[in-house]
Design a protein that fits this description.
Elements lengths: L1 E2 L2 E2 L20 H7 L20 H124 L2 H15 L8 E4 L4 E4 L1 H8 L2 H9 L14 H8 L6 H14 L1
Antiparallel strand pairs: 1-2, 3-4
Helix pairs in contact: 3-5, 4-5, 4-6, 5-7, 6-7
Length: 278
């Protein structure tokens, strides 16, 4: 029997036992208890001597064990290399992700800065527009104030001039009231007698080059361009609105005859005296 590298022979079975077909029973507990530290563990000598094992058979398990060991070492090395490679790839992946995150964060910050700058620019533009609008409103308000002031000044000047004209008209009326009515009657009477009128509002037919026509004493005074006579006739009761045969009033006749201000005084008398009467 070959056990733990040593041969043992079995003597109890005698010749009845066969070393090729029979089996034996070994009590391992007794062997372990009899084993001493430092002593080589050998099977008990039971008288069995197995045949010698060829050397190539003894070396073959060692080579297989060495092959398995090398394969195991190669597998471990490959696993270690793969693990290191995975760790390296993971480290590169993390670095790439961190770099990408930093780039995206930088891009986001730049975009935020541009947005803030654009917002500030818009606000600056709005503030500028508001300032321009405020300036425009102030200018318009100032212009309106100046225009209102000028309008008020013009209104005051107009009222002053109107008041002055009224005062002059009142003074003129007072002067006319103090004028002797007998003198007016004498002046008007002489005019009517000289030109053949019986009354200040009498129509008189005249013969023209083509046809006859009629007019009033006031028309004749306008033709004569006598402002005092026109005034006296109006004060004596002559109708300013009376038209001749063509429907022309004394005022319209004076306007037609007025050449370069020749009948301005007559027109003033017609207007002022008529206003005084009204």
């Amino acid at each position: 029997m070959f056990f733990c590298g040593n041969s043992y022979s079995c003597g109890n079975c005698g010749s009845l036992a066969s070393n090729k077909t029979d089996t034996i029973k070994i009590d391992l507990d007794d062997i372990i208890q009899s084993f001493q530290p430092g002593q080589e563990l050998l099977a008990p000598d039971i008288g069995f001597r197995p045949p010698a094992v060829p050397r190539y058979l003894e070396e073959k398990p060692l080579e297989e064990e060495h092959a398995r060991y090398r394969e195991e070492q190669e597998r471990l090395r490959q696993e270690r290399d793969k693990r290191e490679q995975d760790e390296e790839e993971g480290r590169h992946q993390r670095l790439w992700q961190e770099e990408r995150f930093l780039l995206e964060e930088k891009r986001r910050l730049e975009e935020e800065a541009r947005r803030i700058e654009e917002t500030e620019r818009q606000w600056t533009h709005v503030e500028s527009q508001c300032a321009d609008e405020e300036h425009r409103r102030r200018v318009e308000a100032l212009q309106r104030a100046r225009a209102e002031k000028a309008a008020k000044a013009a209104e005051r000047e107009r009222r002053r001039a109107e008041k002055k004209r009224e005062e002059e008209a009142q003074l003129h009326v007072q002067e006319r009231l103090t004028w002797d009515s007998e003198q007016i009657q004498q002046q008007v009477g002489k005019f009517l007698e000289r030109h053949g009128y019986a009354d200040v509002n009498e129509q008189k037919v005249r013969r023209g080059a083509k046809a006859a026509y009629f007019d009033y004493p006031l028309h004749k005074a306008v033709e004569m361009n006598d402002a005092d006579l026109v005034e006296a006739l109006i004060l004596a009761g002559a109708r300013i609105a009376a038209g001749d045969s063509n429907g022309v009033t004394p005022t319209q006749l004076a306007e037609r005859l007025n050449q370069k201000g020749s009948h301005d005084e007559v027109l003033n008398k017609l207007h002022h005296v008529h206003l005084e009467q009204t």
